[in-house]
């Protein structure tokens, strides 16, 4: 995870246990060791953010902490730095466990740990999440890891299999705790809290403090220091902010189409890692764009040369990481594209602030995968500005743009009258000797001019990015059909029992059955959260949800995207495997709700199974 420090425009206010100092403390003032401080210097951190300054000292002192801060205040470093500083590298069983709501956040937290531990030899960090094969995780666990970062469901799976030993756990971090509870992981989180050593130190971070978080804090944390950080994060009103829903595989095609249709001068494309920036730049150059990458591996002289090329117009697209683009101010940057959307709002604000400077207008476009959609809401909440959804530029739009540019080139060539007169004689000579109409000669010359790349794209066999359901159904967003009603989402229908009437799925949808129902205390939001997170579905991929006593029925797209059923094979809700399968509408098998014990799995401690 790329951690950025709050901008000078932020106005942090620290309450409760936060230290009040007249001058900003340094990381060394907080009590961190030399190896960690060296790593921080390497990534360019100079002064701690408000949440870091308030949280690191009590964590280093061994105290439990509850940190209330919005996404983007630098809280990953706030818990990662003390953990790394206090690791015992001789202990091979996991010492620290970080729970995150999504696999993307888990991976980014892992990257942050590795970055901050770069000057310590032999620190092993393991991401553990659904959708990844068990083999890689099991091999790493057998070799020994110091820090495990994972989603609650997969952590529970490893605990039940006996493949994850948390008996010597010293630190437990709950990152984005409110998001985990919203997604239905409350029971899993509480089981992990209850089944790990009572002597562990716990840090809980949340953007809000609902009653459920307050109760969890009181029950599982020991006299925690409560730290609240309020920030004012704003973006320039001159920047138009849009986002595009895409899968990871579609990002490069989406970027190419945006470059085709957007009227841009200079552009910065932000990637999450160094390797991603290099790959994007290489692919753009292969497609005919003047593009270059700058990241932590690029030497300062080359970085300065590349930035000067961007300023002069010799370079049109700069692909960069957050750190490499820090302090970059180039007047001709009209567009910023977040190829990988940042998970912290401060980083987002810093990125899009590279355009729209000094009163000029700018455009910011973010690529958002289905599992990252919650980040758009977090950004809107933090910046108090709307980020509007855009559609992938169509083939017709791309072709129209290409034709316009082709026309412009012809018009510009016609203005060179002397050269046109010379070539007119050449064309006339060809027409006389080959008896070919002049329009056919012009078409042949256009073929010669286009080279290997076709002037126009072929029509898509199907849309690369499925439009929102409201658009697909011909309805405006926000209608009852698009949102679903309480009855559709498992209200009265959920009380009718197994024999209640089934609602026929609408066009483009099919009915699926999952093996959790009312007696498992399942709610529609848990179903949507689990299937969206683990299966890669969008929130508007869900139709009606009918919750029955022992199972639930869910309308999902027909057919499901490739690989969805496989990704959901190990998904749990309320501690139970969901066993997603198409609903046939016939009578339910008596063994359809069998206990996990029948599959040879150990029953979970504290579960609600009957």
| Assigned CATH class of the largest domain | Alpha Beta
Radius of gyration: 28 Å
**Tally of individual domains:** 4
What name does the CATH topology of the largest domain carry? Rossmann fold
Strand percent estimate: 15-25%
Largest sheet, if any?
8 strands, mixed
Instruction: Summarize model confidence as the mean pLDDT.
Output: 78
Shape category: globular
Give a verbal description of the structure.
Helix content is 36%, strand content 15%. Strands 1-8-2-7-6-3-5-4 form an eight-stranded mixed β-sheet, with helices on both faces. The longest helix is centred in the middle third of the chain and has 20 residues, at 395-414. It has 21 helices and 21 strands. Helix 3 (75-85) packs across helix 4 and helix 6 packs across helix 8. Mean pLDDT is 78; it is low at 1-22, 461-499 and 587-610. The two termini are 41 Å apart. It has 610 residues and is α/β, with parallel strands linked by helices. It is globular and about 95 Å long. The chain has four domains: 13-230, 3-Layer(aba) Sandwich (Rossmann fold), CATH 3.40.50.300; 239-394, P-loop containing nucleotide triphosphate hydrolases (Rossmann fold), CATH 3.40.50.300; 396-450, no CATH class; 480-599, 2-Layer Sandwich (Alpha-Beta Plaits), CATH 3.30.70. Belongs to the DEAD box helicase family. DeaD/CsdA subfamily. Residues 1-28, 455-509, 575-610 are annotated as: Disordered. Residues 56-227 form the Helicase ATP-binding domain.
């Amino acid at each position: 995870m790329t951690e950025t420090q709050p901008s000078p425009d932020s106005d942090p206010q620290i309450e409760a246990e936060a230290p009040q100092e007249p001058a900003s403390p340094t990381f060394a003032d907080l009590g961190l060791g030399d190896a960690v401080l060296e790593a921080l210097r390497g990534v360019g951190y100079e002064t701690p953010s408000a949440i870091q300054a308030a949280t690191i000292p009590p964590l280093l002192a061994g105290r439990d902490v509850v940190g209330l801060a919005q996404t983007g205040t630098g809280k990953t470093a706030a818990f990662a730095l003390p953990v790394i500083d206090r690791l015992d590298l001789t202990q091979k069983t996991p010492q620290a466990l970080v729970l995150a709501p999504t696999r993307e956040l888990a991976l980014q937290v892992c990257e942050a740990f590795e970055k901050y531990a770069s000057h310590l030899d032999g620190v092993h960090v393991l991401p553990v999440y659904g959708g990844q094969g068990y083999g890689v995780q099991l091999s790493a666990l057998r070799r020994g890891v110091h820090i495990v970062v994972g989603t609650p469901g997969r952590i529970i799976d490893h605990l039940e299999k006996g493949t994850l030993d948390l008996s010597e756990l010293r630190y437990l971090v709950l990152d984005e705790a409110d998001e985990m509870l919203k997604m239905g992981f409350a029971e899993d989180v509480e089981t992990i809290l209850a089944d790990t050593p009572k002597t562990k130190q716990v840090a809980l971070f949340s953007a809000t403090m609902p009653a459920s978080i307050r109760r969890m804090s009181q029950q599982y944390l020991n006299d925690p220091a409560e730290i609240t950080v309020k920030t004012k994060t704003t973006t320039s009103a001159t920047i138009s902010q849009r986002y595009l829903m895409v899968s990871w595989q579609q990002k490069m095609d989406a970027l190419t189409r945006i470059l085709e249709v957007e009227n841009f001068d200079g552009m910065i494309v932000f990637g999450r890692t160094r390797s991603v920036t290099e790959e994007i730049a290489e692919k753009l150059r292969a497609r005919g764009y003047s593009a270059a990458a700058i990241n932590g591996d690029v030497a300062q002289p080359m970085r300065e040369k590349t930035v000067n090329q961007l300023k002069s117009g010799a370079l049109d697209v700069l692909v960069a990481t957050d750190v490499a683009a820090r302090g970059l101010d180039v007047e001709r940057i009209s567009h910023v594209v977040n190829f990988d959307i940042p998970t912290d709002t401060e980083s987002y604000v810093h990125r899009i602030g590279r355009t729209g400077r000094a009163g000029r207008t700018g455009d910011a476009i973010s690529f958002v995968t289905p599992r990252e959609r919650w980040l758009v809401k977090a950004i809107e909440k933090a910046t108090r500005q709307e980020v509007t959804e855009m559609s992938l530029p169509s083939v017709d739009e791309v072709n129209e743009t290409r034709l316009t540019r082709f026309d412009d080139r012809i018009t510009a060539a016609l203005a060179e009258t002397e050269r046109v007169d010379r070539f007119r004689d050449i064309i006339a000579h060809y027409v006389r000797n080959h008896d070919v109409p002049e329009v056919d000669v012009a078409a042949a010359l256009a073929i010669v001019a286009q080279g290997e790349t076709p002037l126009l794209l072929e029509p898509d066999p199907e849309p690369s990015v499925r439009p929102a359901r409201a658009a697909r159904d011909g309805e405006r967003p926000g209608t009852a059909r698009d949102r679903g009603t309480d009855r559709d989402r498992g209200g009265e229908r959920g009380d009718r029992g197994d024999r209640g009437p089934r609602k026929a799925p609408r066009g483009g949808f099919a009915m699926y059955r999952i093996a959790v129902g009312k007696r498992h205390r399942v709610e529609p939001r848990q179903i949507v959260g689990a299937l969206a997170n683990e299966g890669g579905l969008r929130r508007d991929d869900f139709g009606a949800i009918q919750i029955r006593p022992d199972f639930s029925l869910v309308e999902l797209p027909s057919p499901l995207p490739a690989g969805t059923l496989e990704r959901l094979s190990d998904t749990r809700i309320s501690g139970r495997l969901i066993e997603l399968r198409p609903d046939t509408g016939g009578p339910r098998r008596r063994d359809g709700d069998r206990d996990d014990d029948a599959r040879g799995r150990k029953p979970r401690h504290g579960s609600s199974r009957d």
